[in-house]
């Protein structure tokens, strides 16, 4: 039997506007670009919603109505949900309709789509708690499965999630950590007691997320029946096929005119033609299947780039200095107890800011360029550091004001 676990990540960063050195000390709003560029957060999320989120939600709601066995799972960053509340309440309602079917699971993550786990454990836990509260407030549920930003995973993270009572955690099914083993089984993370590890089948996932419209690919065009045959071939050689990808795959990364929505619409029916197939959520996979083996991941593995590490976010000197600068402010920022300032500091932790500073132009260069709203990685760094320095000035001013008051 093969259970299919469909998981979609929905996230849009809050991008920093072109923030000049002359703005430091004068302008304390870093994210309010109103131009016609890709730094305009409202414009971008409305565009992606029209192309991707809204038609995908409408389609999945129909599929959930048509196939009672069909199930999907999502994770939403807190900043994504914030932007829906501000700019697209109708999209938030459509996600709520999906959750109300009782066949959609929502996962836990950091509110700010940050890499805080690797820099500040206390800040990481604060963001996870904020995210839990947001999911409870918006959807009325408490997540039981954890995924970290960009599927960044180590043994240590799994051990943390195990102690927190999560039933499962997600990671990339990367060959070096699997060795001879298959990603199509449930595993036990090293050093844990109860939690299960679900690994992305990156080959099948990326066939959809990255190769779907690539005409030079030997398997193009990819049809739902062809893809279902590949999944069916796993029967008897696996428990669960984890298809993990960005939700923007549908309509934004892979365009409607290339047939991605037709593919998605046909996929459940084609997969359910095989009597041994069913759909499952991550929590159900953890509850249904025993761990087949233990997986040891002593170093960080992500789902990004050919290296599957954090080099896309911290692989060069400007990225490292920017991340260090912002996390070094933690104690001073929290001491201010200023909600707006703390919120801005946390928005500056959004991992996308550091991704935009990536200077890798090898196999993954086109991908980085596609996602970058700035003219260059150095422009991203300059705007970020100017904003971060202004934030530091605000922190210092509050400290001075408090000293005077005392």
Number of domains: 2
Q: What's the main sheet like? A: 5 strands, parallel
Rounded to an integer in angstroms, the radius of gyration calculated over CA atoms is: 21 Å
How many H/I helical runs? 17
CATH class assignment of the largest domain: Alpha Beta
The shape, in one word, is globular
The number of E-state strands comes to 10
Order of helices and strands, N to C?
A: EHEHHEHEHEHEEHHEHEHEHHHHHHH
CATH architecture title of the largest domain: Alpha-Beta Barrel
Extract low-pLDDT stretches: none
Strand content: 5-15%
What does this protein structure show overall?
InterPro entries: GH57_Enzymes, Glyco_hydro/deAcase_b/a-brl, Glyco_hydro_57_N. Keywords: Carbohydrate metabolism. With 406 residues, this protein is α/β, with parallel strands linked by helices. It folds into two domains: 2-295, 7-stranded beta/alpha barrel (Alpha-Beta Barrel), CATH 3.20.110.20; 312-405. Helices cover 47% and strands 11% of the residues. The chain contains 17 helices and ten strands. The chain has helices at residues 41-66, 78-87, 89-99, 121-139, 155-163, 175-178, 202-209, 224-232, 260-272, 282-288, 311-314, 317-328, 330-336, 339-347, 351-355, 365-371, 377-405, and strands at 2-10, 72-76, 104-106, 145-146, 168-172, 188-189, 196-200, 240-246, 277-279, 294-295. The strands form three sheets. Strands 1, 2, 3, 8 and 9 form a five-stranded parallel beta sheet that branches. A three-stranded parallel beta sheet has the order 4-5-7, sandwiched between helices. Strands 6-10 form a two-stranded parallel ribbon. Helix 5 (155-163) links the parallel strand 4 (145-146) and strand 5 (168-172).
